[in-house]
C-alpha cells in the first residue's frame, strides 16, 4: 500500500512496507487515490516526491498475484496481467497530468513497471550504493505495452541506451544511470538520496509555478506519449498582459 503526507508545500507519496512493492490492482488503486488527493490540493509551489521503503522502489507487476488469482489457468493469468497493464496506464496518465513538479526517489531496485513508475516523474534521483534499474521483459518473455515504449522514447534521449535497456535487459547502477541519462543525480546512500530529492523539491517549490501551466508545458514535451495515453493539450495564458 502507500501513504500520503504533506510537509509544507511538498507531498510525500510513500510505498510502504519491506516487500517488492509489486504493482497489483490494490496498490495501483491506492497510488491513484493518493495522486487524486494531491491534485485536488494543488496550489502554486506544490511538489510531489515519491519514495519507497525497503530494498525495492518497485519490482514491477505482481505476476504472483496473476498466477494465484487465475485458478491454475495460464490464459487467465495472462488476462489478469493484461488487466494490470491497462490499470497502470492510468497511473502514468495521472503523473503526466499532475499540475506540479514530480520527483521519484529511488533507494532500491526499480524494475519493469517499477522503472516506468519512476520515469513517469519529471525528475529521478537514485542511490549509488544499492539498487539497479532493469527492464526485464526481454528476459522473461513479454512484449512491451505501447505506452511503456512511448515513455522510454520520450524520456531517454540516446537510441543506444534505449536499445541496451529494452533489447539487452542491462541492469544499470547509479553512476552509469546518470551517464546514460536515466536519472538526474545519484547520492551515496538512502538517506542522502531522500535528502537530495527533498532539496530539489524545495528548490522547485520556491518558483511558485502555476500548476495548470506547468502541466500543459510538460505535455507538449512528449507528443508521442500524450497521443498513446489519449491526453490532449490546451493553451493556457495566465500572464498579466
TrEMBL record:
EC number from the UniProt entry: 5.3.3.8
Pathway: Lipid metabolism; fatty acid beta-oxidation
UniProt GO cellular component terms: peroxisome
Catalytic activity: a (3E)-enoyl-CoA = a 4-saturated (2E)-enoyl-CoA; a (3Z)-enoyl-CoA = a 4-saturated (2E)-enoyl-CoA
Keyword Lipid metabolism (UniProt): yes
Enzyme kind, highest EC tier: isomerase
GO BP terms: fatty acid beta-oxidation
UniProtKB keywords: Lipid metabolism
PANTHER family named among the record's database cross-references: ENOYL-COA HYDRATASE-RELATED, ENOYL-COA HYDRATASE_ISOMERASE FAMILY PROTEIN
Name this polypeptide is given: Delta(3)-Delta(2)-enoyl-CoA isomerase
Amino acid at each position: 500500500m502507500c501513504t500520503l503526507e504533506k510537509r509544507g508545500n511538498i507531498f510525500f507519496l510513500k510505498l510502504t512496507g519491506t516487500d517488492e512493492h509489486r504493482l497489483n490492482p490494490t496498490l495501483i488503486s491506492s497510488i491513484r487515490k493518493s495522486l487524486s488527493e494531491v491534485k485536488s490540493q494543488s496550489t502554486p509551489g506544490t511538489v510531489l516526491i515519491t519514495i519507497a521503503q525497503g530494498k525495492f522502489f518497485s519490482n514491477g507487476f505482481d505476476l504472483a498475484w496473476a498466477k494465484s488469482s487465475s485458478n491454475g489457468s495460464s490464459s487467465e493469468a495472462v488476462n489478469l496481467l493484461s488487466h494490470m497493464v491497462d490499470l497502470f496506464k492510468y497511473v502514468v496518465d495521472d503523473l503526466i497530468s499532475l499540475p506540479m513538479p514530480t520527483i521519484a526517489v529511488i533507494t532500491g531496485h526499480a524494475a519493469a513497471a517499477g522503472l516506468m513508475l519512476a520515469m513517469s516523474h519529471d525528475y529521478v534521483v537514485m542511490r549509488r550504493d544499492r539498487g539497479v534499474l532493469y527492464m526485464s521483459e526481454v528476459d522473461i518473455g513479454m512484449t512491451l505495452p505501447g505506452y511503456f515504449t512511448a515513455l522510454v522514447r520520450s524520456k531517454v534521449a540516446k537510441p543506444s541506451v534505449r536499445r541496451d535497456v529494452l533489447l539487452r535487459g542491462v541492469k544499470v547502477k547509479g553512476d552509469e544511470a546518470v551517464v546514460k541519462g536515466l536519472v538526474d543525480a545519484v547520492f551515496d546512500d538512502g538517506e542522502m538520496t531522500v535528502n537530495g530529492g527533498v532539496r530539489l523539491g524545495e528548490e522547485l517549490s520556491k518558483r511558485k509555478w502555476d500548476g495548470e501551466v506547468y502541466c500543459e508545458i510538460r505535455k507538449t514535451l512528449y507528443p508521442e506519449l500524450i497521443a498513446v495515453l489519449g491526453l490532449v493539450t490546451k493553451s493556457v495564458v495566465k500572464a498579466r498582459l
